[in-house]
Design brief:
Low-confidence stretches of chain A: 253-263
CATH architecture of the largest domain in chain B: Orthogonal Bundle
Number of helices of chain B: 9
CATH architecture of the largest domain in chain A: 3-Layer(aba) Sandwich
CATH class of the largest domain in chain A: Alpha Beta
Order of helices and strands of chain B: HHHHHHHHH
Number of domains of chain A: 2
Number of strands of chain B: 0
Number of helices of chain A: 8
Structural class of chain A: alpha/beta
Oligomer: heterodimer
CATH superfamily of the largest domain in chain B: MetI-like
Distance between the termini of chain A: 33 Å
Strand content of chain A: 15-25%
Largest sheet of chain B: none
CATH class of the largest domain in chain B: Mainly Alpha
CATH superfamily of the largest domain in chain A: P-loop containing nucleotide triphosphate hydrolases
Largest sheet of chain A: 6 strands, mixed
Shape of chain B: globular
Strand order of the largest sheet of chain A: 6-7-8-3-9-10
Strand content of chain B: under 5%
Mean pLDDT of chain A: 88
Order of helices and strands of chain A: EEEHEEEHHHEHEHEEHH
Radius of gyration of chain B: 22 Å
């Protein structure tokens, strides 16, 4: 599994009237097979960071290495899951899951085998011929995961992947994400605005400042992934600590709606 | 199959209603210029094979060729313009300037340049369909959610693959709607262009019957033209249902 090295990364959006600096001097190392969570006030450049890691936004300064390779474009085994899941409404569930393989010209028979396996793993086998519009939010999310599994992704980049779901579905999927991570040991970067989600799914939690986003703090989160972590005193303590840090960044309003408003 | 039954039933009821209104109108007006549906349909049936079929064929060919040509030229161009902000900065204003010009006024020019056969008629209808599809395709391409494009690009899609998997399918329903709406205009312009020059086509058939005061024949021609419009509209609807299956799923 690849490690990520981010060195003095800055990203600037070129606009019509003025340029907007979204990220500034980001230094971050994500270990091989480490899941980290990134949290921060709205518009702090969390999503920008993911797009830069996905090779979809060029760095204005600094550089990103993934698995020792500098990132200049999309990487073969990186899976990006966006907030609305990035599914194509005009493709069936099976074709959506197979898209990455199809773009890479994997033979049809091989594709079908891999996709059938991924859909089966995520409990979507009987919906293979349905369209995304016929699925519930949780199922769409699982389909996005199936696409990542079909690609045999070793790096998962997720941008608030669960924010559109109801509380119960959300906890289910958090457990599923954890389970898949335990089995596969992939490296993961999860952007979220929910404190609980960050603590539940991040071995470390990176707090960003308001725009332009910089690393304000990195909170170690030992115990993450342990059985019963969600109801342990450490979990609660860590959430409180993060809330304090976010308050200090003037981000309480967004963070609070993120964690409680959705529940 | 139930959908089909409902559709046929709907058409039957609508036709019955139209015929009733027509009969009533013909009784109220009481002029030979507005014969009732019975003589008109009788003439339609008798004239159809012997006399009208070749004209219907010519007209159908003209309008179908124009719509296919217009869509084939405009859809790719509109999508490309809509996806390229720099091209759009020039093409957009150009489009706003030229779109409102009524293309029908160019018919005399086309007649001079292309003669009086199929060519000027096809060129004129193509021009009209072209602009309608161009505007629609451009707007559709501009409205595609960034996240869909980003997701597909993150999977390593090339520019061409983004078109194939995202841009084209996303715009197809809008393009079909624009095509269906433009059938009305296309048939109207077809009628107009056939009455101005040439000696064939349903437009000519209708005007020829009019000059001979053969009113029920004239109405037979009008029925044929209406049927041509309905057939085109339904064909597009069927094609859309087949090509854009996802739009009907989950409803």
């Amino acid at each position: 599994m690849p490690a990520i090295d981010i060195n003095a990364l800055a990203v600037t959006y070129t606009g019509v009237d003025r340029d907007t600096r979204a990220l500034e001097s980001i230094d971050l190392h994500v270990g091989d097979g480490e899941p980290i969570a990134v949290i921060g006030p709205s518009g702090c450049g969390k999503s920008t960071l993911l797009l830069a890691l996905a090779g979809l936004l060029p760095a204005s300064q600094g550089r990103v290495n993934i698995g020792g390779e500098p990132i200049a474009g999309p990487r073969r085994r990186t899976a990006l899951i966006l907030q609305d899941f990035g599914l194509l409404p005009w493709k069936t569930v099976a074709h959506n899951a197979a898209l990455g393989l199809e773009l890479r010209a994997v033979a049809a028979a091989e594709r079908r085998r891999i996709v059938a396996e991924a859909l089966d793993r995520l409990g979507l086998a009987e919906f293979a011929d349905a369209y995304p519009g016929e699925l519930s939010g949780g199922m769409r999310q699982r389909l996005a995961l199936a696409r990542a599994l079909a690609l045999d992704a070793d790096l998962l980049l997720m941008d608030e992947p669960l924010s559109a779901l109801d509380a119960l579905t959300r906890e289910d999927l958090q457990d599923l994400l954890l389970e898949i991570w335990r089995q596969r040991g992939h490296t993961a970067v999860l952007v979220t605005h929910s404190i609980e989600e960050a603590v539940y799914l991040g071995r470390r939690v990176v707090v960003l400042t308001p725009r332009p986003g910089r690393v304000a703090a990195i909170v170690d989160n030992p115990g993450m992934g342990d059985e019963g972590f969600r109801s342990s005193p450490e979990f609660l303590k860590r959430c409180v600590k993060l809330r304090r840090l976010l308050e200090a960044e003037g981000a309480l309003a967004t963070a609070a709606t993120g964690s409680e408003g959705d529940a | 199959m139930r959908g089909w039954g409902r559709k046929v039933g709907g058409y039957a009821a609508a036709t019955a209603m139209l015929l009733a209104v027509w009969e009533l109108g013909s009784l109220v007006v009481g002029s030979p210029a507005l014969p009732g549906p019975v003589p008109a349909i009788r003439d339609f049936v008798t004239a159809f094979v012997s006399d009208m079929l070749p004209h219907l064929g010519v007209s159908a060919w003209r309008v179908v060729a124009s719509m296919v040509l217009g869509a084939a030229l405009a859809a790719p161009l509109g999508l490309a313009v809509g996806r390229a902000p720099r091209v759009d900065a020039v093409a957009g204003p150009l489009l706003f300037l030229t779109y409102p010009i009524p293309k029908v006024v160019f018919l005399p020019v086309l007649l001079v340049l292309l003669g009086i056969g199929d060519a000027p008629k096809i060129a004129l209808i193509t021009m009209i369909v072209f602009f309608q599809i161009l505007v629609t395709a451009r707007d559709a391409a501009r409205g595609i959610p960034t996240s869909a494009v980003l997701s597909v690009r993150s999977l390593g899609a090339t520019r061409w693959q983004v078109y194939r998997h995202v841009v084209v399918p996303a715009a197809l329903p809008d393009i079909f709607t624009a095509l269906r709406i433009s059938t009305g205009t296309a048939i109207a312009v077809l009628f107009f262009s056939e009455t101005i020059a040439g000696t064939d086509g349903l437009g000519w058939y209708i005007i020829d019957a009019w000059t001979r005061i053969a009113y029920s024949e004239m109405f037979a021609g009008i029925i044929a033209m209406a049927l041509l419009g309905v057939a085109l509209y339904e064909a597009l609807d069927l094609a859309e249902a087949r090509v854009c299956r996802w739009t009907r799923a989950g409803r």
